[in-house]
Please model this.
Amino acid sequence: MLKCHYCSSESSTYIKYAKMHLCKEHFINFIDRKIESSLKRYKMLEEKSKLLLAISGGKDSIVMLNSLSKLKLNILALYLDLGLGNYSNEAKKICEEITSILGVNFITISLKDLIGIDLPSLAKKAHRPYCSVCGIVKRYLLNIAALYSKVDKIAMGHHLDDLLTFIFKNFIIQRMEDISKLGPKTESMEGLIGRIRPLYEVSEEETRLYVEFSNLPYLESKCPYMFRGDLEILLRDFINKLEDNFPGIKISMIRYIAKNINKFKIESKWSYCKNCGHPSISEYCSFCKITKKAIGEMYGNIVKEKIAKIISYN
Ligand code: SF4
Ligand code: ZN
Ligand code: ZN
Model:
């Protein structure tokens, strides 16, 4: 029987890059410590930071929530219900369950309650791809919720494999500025709350093992609108083959990228949306533009008022 590196229990997994056999308990501990040290390494938090955790019910955000809840931080978890059919209903249930188990403050914001239609209808009416509309909506609603709940940062559950895949993809198509958005954190500015990625050095496989070993509830199904192109699938495969041959290379790569992240940045001229006052690089913000195109009205101010009410009730 192969034993755990730290105790006499049977090993449940082997961490190739750390050359350690670990039992379930010490594996969870290993990942918790890795997340904690990423918070410090990348200076993600100030002292006494209040955090808004964007949770989706998937394994990545559940790992982030579970791990950060052990650090005695001031946390508010938020689930954005985009109205993606049964997938959203299941995800919401899981988020309610896990936040109640962990005793974390939790709110849900429903897109349909805010603008009268769900995400698929909004995308159809705007004649835009689902994921691109989803990105605009999520960024806007999360930021408004973060502003009204007076948090210092928004924590996102993006893991190492997703980040490296997007970085490689953006490099291939030479969208270097987009790489600058894939660092461990973004700074806050007037009207825009900065983001952090506590799972910056945690791989997808590690999030899978973490939820499995800790018996945490999580949503196994993927969003019905998820689409992974051939290039993305190939890149993921390539990155993991690299890791198989050179254990630890994924973490080394992401650390180099984090070091150079500002070199990819293009200074944009920020102004404020003429309708809702949200920071924007054009006359109107993307959320106001997309709601105007799809529903005939800019919903920025309406949404802000409704979210302010939801936050003040909780
Ligand atoms: Fe949104 Fe689903 Fe696309 Fe993710 S996969 S961005 S949840 S529509
Ligand atoms: Zn052990
Ligand atoms: Zn606006």
Notes: The CA atoms of residues 16 and 244 lie 8 Å apart. Strands lie at 13-15, 20-22, 50-54, 74-81, 105-110, 153-155, 195-196, 271-272, 279-280. Residues 130-148 form the longest helix (19 residues). The radius of gyration is 20 Å.
